[in-house]
């Protein structure tokens, strides 16, 4: 059976940063943010070339174990075969190891670029199949769903004829929502931080989080005035606080000041779900952020991953 036909021209994709969990929506809620990595992938005659600039440039692998490259190869396998060679150029702006979805961005960039490089790729690998593949590569669907589709997403796993598969629902965000990210210099290991969450939690805590998560959907989409109460969490943030004491303290200070704040993903970035009226003041509040964090306004990205350059 013949393999796929590839485009000769390079494909350029842009993928947004994401914040997962958003407080009570552990492993299911995701929000896309206007901070982007750009990746260019081209089929070559032979070999592998990987060039990385920007965030993580000193640490990112430049061989077949590079996460973008692995995702490209996994997608080509699914679409029928590999090209003889590959060139990958990454311009990274999303901080690594800070809870802003850098690994999800790399995975989604690789999957989307590979799909576009294969003639007929979008028909062979529709968006729902891209989500399934990206979630398999990432290990959970919350960040990759928001990265793929933009906006606010709810992701989950369910069983069908293919086994356990990931699905997602994208919802429109209230136009007043204007997040602020407090990004520290320190990093966190998602794998290590996940181990701090216990296998069992009190029934009361689970019930409280279920109510807050349901309310947070209403808050993000229609009622920003409910963001403070709806972002309260008992399932993961309290257990992870010991691994990021400054971030946990900042969340407490912000919430005490009436600002809806959560740990972004596995941390240690803190995300304040502010509105357009309050975002600038919150970002400029040195007493809230302290010298350990750099505050940046990161509006919601509504487009998700997209091809920004595709020659005929």
The number of helical elements comes to 12
| Overall spatial form | globular
From the 3D structure, determine the CATH topology of the largest domain. Answer: Ribosomal Protein S5, domain 2
CATH class of the largest domain: Alpha Beta
| Count of beta strands | 11
What's the gyration radius in Å? 20 Å
Proportion of helical residues: 25-40%
Strand content: 25-35%
Q: Would you identify the CATH architecture of the largest domain?
A: 2-Layer Sandwich
Termini gap = 26 Å
Structural class: alpha+beta
- Helix/strand order, N-terminal first: EEEHEHHHHEEEHHHHHEEHHEE
Number of domains: 2
Mean pLDDT: 94
Low-confidence segments, given as residue ranges, are none
**Sheet bearing the most strands, described?**
7 strands, mixed
């Amino acid at each position: 059976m013949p393999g796929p036909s590839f485009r000769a021209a390079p494909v350029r994709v842009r993928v947004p940063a994401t914040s997962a969990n958003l407080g009570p929506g552990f492993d299911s809620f995701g929000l896309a943010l206007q901070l982007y990595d750009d990746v260019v992938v081209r089929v070559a005659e032979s070999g592998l070339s990987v060039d990385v600039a920007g965030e993580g440039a000193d640490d990112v692998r430049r061989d077949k174990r590079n996460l973008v490259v692995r995702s490209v190869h996994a997608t080509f396998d699914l679409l029928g075969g590999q090209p003889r060679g590959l060139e990958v150029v990454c311009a990274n702006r999303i901080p690594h190891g800070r809870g802003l979805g850098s690994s999800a961005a790399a995975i989604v960039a690789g999957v989307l670029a590979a799909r576009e490089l294969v003639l007929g790729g979008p028909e062979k690998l529709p968006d729902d199949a891209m989500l399934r593949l990206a979630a398999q590569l990432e290990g959970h669907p919350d960040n990759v769903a928001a990265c793929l589709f933009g906006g606010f997403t709810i992701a989950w796993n369910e069983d069908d004829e293919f086994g356990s598969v990931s699905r997602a629902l994208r919802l429109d965000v209230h136009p007043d929502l204007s997040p602020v990210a407090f990004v520290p210099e320190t990093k966190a290991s998602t794998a290590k931080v996940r181990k701090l969450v216990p296998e069992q939690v009190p029934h009361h805590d689970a019930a409280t989080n279920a109510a807050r998560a349901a309310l947070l959907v209403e808050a993000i989409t229609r009622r920003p005035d409910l963001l403070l109460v709806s972002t309260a969490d008992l399932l993961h943030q309290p257990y992870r606080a010991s691994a990021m004491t400054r971030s946990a303290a900042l969340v407490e200070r912000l919430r005490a000041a009436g600002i809806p704040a959560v740990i972004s993903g596995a941390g240690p970035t803190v995300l304040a779900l502010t509105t357009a009226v309050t975002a600038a003041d919150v970002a400029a509040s040195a007493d809230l952020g302290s010298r350990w964090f750099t505050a940046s306004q990161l509006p919601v990205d509504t487009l998700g991953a997209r091809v920004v350059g595709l020659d005929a």
